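Student: Hello, beginner here. Can you help me understand the protein record under this note? Any guidance would be welcome.
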Amino acid sequence: MKKLLSSFLFLTFLNFCYGQRELQSIQRYLQEHASAWNLKSSDFSNLELVSSASSKAANTKHWKVRQTKNGLSIIDGFGIVTVTNNQVVHVTTNFVSITEPANHSALSATEAVNGALKHLSLAGSNMKQLKYSENTYLFSKEGISKENIPVKLVLGQSKGQLVYLWDLSIYPVSSEHWWSMRLNAETGEVVFQNDWISHCSAEHCADENHHISETMMVPPPPPGLDQYMVYALPNISPAHGNRVLVVNPSDVTYSPFGWHDTDGIAGDEYTITRGNNVYASEDIDNDDFPGYSPDGTSSLNFNFAYDSVVGVQGNLDAVITNLFYMNNMMHDIWAYYGFDEESGNFQETNYSGSALGQDQVMADAQDGSGTNNANFGTPPDGQNPRMQMYLWTESNVPDLLTINAPAAIDGAYSCSTAGFGPPVPTTPITEDLVLVIDDGTDTTDACGTITNGAALAGKIALVRRGNCTFAEKVVACQNFGAVAVIVMNNTGTSTQAMGGGTGAETIPSIMVSKPNGDSFVNQMNQGNTVNGTIVNPGDLTATDSDFDNMIIAHEYGHGISTRLVGGADNTDCLFNAEQMGEGWSDWFGLMITQVASDLGTDGRGVGTYVTNEPNNGGGIRPAQYSTAFAINDYTYGNTNSNSLSQPHGIGFVWATMLWDLNWALIDQYGFDSNIKSGTGGNNMAMHLVIEGLKLTACGPGFVDGRDGILAADQVLYGGANKCLIWEVFARRGLGFSASQGSSDDRNDQVEAFDVDPSCSGSGLGLNENKTTQIQVYPNPSNGKLTVKNSNSEIQQIELVDLSGKRVYTTAGNNNYEVTLDINSLKKGLYLMKVQTRNGFQTVRVEKL
């Protein structure tokens, strides 16, 4: 054991020295190129190496460096520097201009915490200081927060100036939010507040991982016989196929000790749905402590029957097993594309010794904090994320609402319920409907100040879906005495179950479709009184999101995008108005549920199972995902419209573009059903998006996201797909001339449909060599390839497969003609990068 520990400490020392050499090289590069970002060389005088993230490109790593001043980190002054073969090839910059701080650090850490609690309307208590190191503190949670409260003195930007800030996080016991906050260290003003919990609607020291890394030289056990009865991928839900028994599904590379290990030594630590990647249990009582978990006994047999008579609430063994399976599959699949230990994935034990462990997903099945929703809270690396999965009440109930008058529209209407507030009562509520009027952008969505509040007293309020949450609308109406709320959908022809809520809602609410809501408003505009009855006709059968693999993937996807954009130590990069987190999450679910028979022009809905829709239904997004504009014609310009919600509607447009990209690559390279290590266009899309997340600026808009993917293609494939990518995004209005304006403003986007000028006239396809200077023949080849260049000497030739892995390298020796022997390569497509004295060209080749 001592020998293993000594080896680990020696490796740690070597890694530290290697990192410091990289930091010096990166610092020189940044100082030499400072003017490119309108900065001074002195702005990079004091840098700290924060972390590194892996790349699937050969000899490539993404290094995160942060600016410092006066011995303090500048929390929003950092960049991701991509280094290949010891050369900087890309910089994703969030660096800032450094000035003298405009304030003083007058407040103590205790005063900062108390100020944050007051801002959040949380009662203070006698918090205990648990830890202290230079400028860093840890306070006990004391019934205020679900986690201890870390507090750190930093520098950061506020109102265009560099100021001292107290940076902290509080996870209120209500578990609705997990606040990351920064307060002016002199005045106590809250200058930044971000919720780490994305709705579907304490410091860890390095030595905490030492014992983990000792085990990395212990060989994994032989294949297990653990088995799970689940809706196995690519199945989506009970509506899409039957449960099947999967045996030993853990990945030998990324879960080498199985799904029930936590220490990296052969032998399972748990026989329940708990292991290195996730701890799945029920949280019906909403205390955020692990509840019941099914036990597979020493044989790890999770083959549990499902009793259709008692429904999902009586089948905890089955639903928790599916939740456990899906979290582990998301972990294992996306590690192949770069969401691995070094990049900040979720594991109790990091077998490689890189980054921080102790952050397995805490997955709560049938969480009691609400219905019709799901969420994922993502703290920085080394702290446990939490997934909360809810039951969903029946959607599109045919007789929740009956319009009694006028006769022109009387009758029963299909509605959906809310996952917050009191349920629709069995005692009828019969009242006139009153359209809410407010002073906001959309004057009927109850998101501005209500101007006809007196008219709502004792009535049923009618509001349009729009720029604030469903719960905020309900509370605004109940404050004026409304007895119930009807929300009119603002898109499509269906309704959706409404999620969210804070516990402040005291009146029931339902949703009607846009056409039905329009008919109510039309009658009111004609001067007619609309009277209705809201009543629960009986038990509203529940579905369970623990059985909806798309929703589980969506929530887990929030953790991936939040950890990768800006680096795993900083989960405050997806907070701004135009950020695309909801879109990335939808895309994760779409990608892992594809099958070979799918077509890009098919319509794919999200959440059709939990909302009781047919499999070809519209789901909970404004339209189905499809490359066909007849089904989904949304473009970048639509993000300016208040008819699309923030963040889900904005994210939906981004996912539409990523889905198009997936199909353009499939059209080019084919589809591969091997979800982990295939070489099809779908696998390439997965590589590009994960690598692109690592290269996307903090606080991104769509242009930043697009540029991250273009940069990823350059890093992984030498820019071979540059023009294909440009044409995909240009088709949806995110072309070369598009502008995102301020990514903090959701209404200033400008769409454009042009491509990069270098791609004009290229047609949708590879940015490969089109000249006669480089000839490759025979192509396709059965094993021998000749490469000729009549214009310049060939220096080096590389072949990479479609996953970005370099599989062949040879020196050109400055010859004009080189012959290759590729007999050892598998059949399939490859990208050949030919380096000459004049640069390099990329050519597609096929091995027969």
Remarks:
- The mean pLDDT is 89.
- The first helix runs from residue 2 to 32.
